[in-house]
Amino acid sequence: MNKMPLSNRLFMVMGYFFLYVPIASLVIFSFNESRLVTVWGGFSFKWYGEMFRNDDLLHAAGLSFKIAFLSATLAVVLGTLAGFVLARFGRFKGQSLFAGLTSAPMVMPEVIVGLSMLLLFVSLQSGLGCSSDEPLGLLSRMGCWAFGERGMITIWIGHTTLCMAYVAVLVQSRLKELDRSLEDAAMDLGCHPFKVFFIITIPVIAPALVSGWLLSFTLSLDDYVLTAFLSGPGSTTMPQWIFSSVRIGPTPEVNALATVVIVVVTLFVVVSNRLMLSAQAKRDKAMQAAFSGKS
Amino acid sequence: MAVTPSSADAGESKKNYLEIKGVTKKFGDFYAVDDVDLVIPKNEIFALLGSSGSGKSTLLRMLAGMEKPTEGRIILEGQDITDLQPYVRPVNMMFQSYALFPHMTVEQNIAFGLKQDKLPRDEIADRVGKMLDLVQMKKYARRKPHQLSGGQQQRVALARSLAKRPKLLLLDEPLGALDKKLRVQTQFELVNVIETVGVTCIMVTHDQEEAMTMASRIAIMSEGKLMQVGGPREIYEYPNCRFTAEFIGSTNIFEGRLAVDEPDHIVIESQDLGRGIYVDHGITGPKGMNVWYSVRPEDVTLCRDKPDSQHNWVEGKVHDIAYLGSHSVYHIKLASGRVVMANVPTSHWGEAKPATWGDDIVAKWGNNAGAVLTS
Prior knowledge:
The complex is a heterodimer of chains A (295) and B (375).
Chain A: H1 6-29, H2 46-53, H3 55-88, H4 95-107, H5 110-128, H6 138-147, H7 152-177, H8 181-188, H9 193-204, H10 206-221, H11 225-230, H12 238-248, H13 252-292
Helix pairs in contact in A: 2-13, 3-7, 3-10, 3-12, 4-7, 5-6, 7-10, 8-9
Chain B: H1 10-15, E1 18-27, E2 30-40, E3 45-49, H2 56-64, E4 71-76, E5 79-80, E6 91-94, H3 106-116, H4 121-134, H5 150-162, E7 168-172, H6 180-197, E8 200-205, H7 208-214, E9 217-222, E10 225-230, H8 232-237, H9 242-247, E11 252-261, E12 266-270, E13 275-279, E14 290-295, E15 301-303, E16 313-323, E17 327-334, E18 339-345, E19 360-364, E20 371-373
Parallel strand pairs in B: 3-8, 3-9, 6-7, 7-8
Antiparallel strand pairs in B: 1-2, 1-4, 4-5, 9-10, 11-12, 11-14, 12-13, 14-20, 15-19, 16-17, 16-19, 17-18
Helix pairs in contact in B: 3-4, 3-5, 4-5, 5-6
């Protein structure tokens, strides 16, 4: 560290400055007594209290977490299936098309994905005749229950489309580096291929599934653009609530909410890192014991 | 393993325990395995030996059921298993990478196959215990695979593939993942375990030493075809073609024309040597046909004086010497540019000064030292 030239140190400090000073100031001003965000009026937890009394905000946060949980879960299921097909089924007709379509949501501008989904749901609604007075068939009634008005289900579908692309890529790359003879061996020992997938493949790639789920969760939690297209009245998510309240004028309440999110995320990262490190240390120790105690 | 042959002629079914009939595997236009016929008796350890791409692994995978033959049948103990799925075949395989399930303990790995068969719990425990004893891994029963050394992993993999008492055991490069020193020791251990269990075994290897140590018969494969099948001594001393002669060990091969063809001897005229090769047995073939003569370096002796006989010797200069302790490999360069290899025991020179680089030297061999090859 001491040998680092002054110019390098300067750039480093500047880099960290630009990254973290805004965040630090956000955290500090969340403890501001004053209603004005930019004027310091003394230390207080007032806005945290306000935050927990704000029903709109709590409702939005709850909805966001619910959607994030559901989207991450469904994305892991669908993404795993897609990744498995891409990694294990060899060349099949339309493989490149399938691979392209699977990862397209990652690179397509979200505005366009959101717009096209909005159009889809709108035409579904009119196609199913949800707003007409005539009695509907069972299928149409089910369709209208799900898509009749934009809300949690439509947001869930949108987020899942985006997230499963990431999961598929993760799972596919994990499976490609996985020794294929593991699955062959299980089959050779009398295990039906369908069962092999659940008792060998899934446990072995579990870490990739966990990180896929976490990635999807965060993607969904802070998504604004897709949600803006797919949400309806009464389904405001946390990012949407923040945006709308900031548009009126930033309040320290938003700062407080942001601080809570930062603390939760930081704790989560630190704890999971610790767990991973200690598991690795345990593994290394056991390995050492195995080699030194060799007969 | 109790086997009750259904047919009356038990001896016959023992001899034809495994029959591979005209098995061919095509990938597109490429013949990975080309019309292979093989019969393997019960309790034999058989090796498929070949370099990579020779089709030996594809043949093994077809026996395991992981590839379907394009043509041909595979019959095990009278039962046609060609179309059986791998998970219902009475065949188990030990994989080159061992393929131990990383999320299961040693015990669970060995029990895996038995659990798939839904055996009662205490029978599984009993059989797993016996397997652990057999491979001397009882101490490590609760370890995970990554907590084991390479040799230990190999033993677990072997125990796992034997636990179901398969009718046929397949070994894919069984010692390929071990280092050289451990490999030599493990070869004998592996054979001991296989013979204790008394299972018919087919192994695939590219290491001829491994094949010759472990197997009672060896098939040499090249480009999807079987070149020669026989015991280790047979294929080493009586190769039937140039490929086998060159693949197993090292050899000197001289091309020539059949000049004298008598019932009790032949003479081959060789351009390479500028001298005839006398062989003290007859062969079947027209005079003048092209033949090859293979003589192993250990059958070539060096001396300083020219012999009286007019056959089976050449003179040249010492071109290269590799000292290997018990013997040295001499490369003798002839006037024609050909190099002849000779293994010379270190004791060969006695009191005299050993031949060294650049010395004029005579290399000679006996009348029955080599093999005449017609292809």
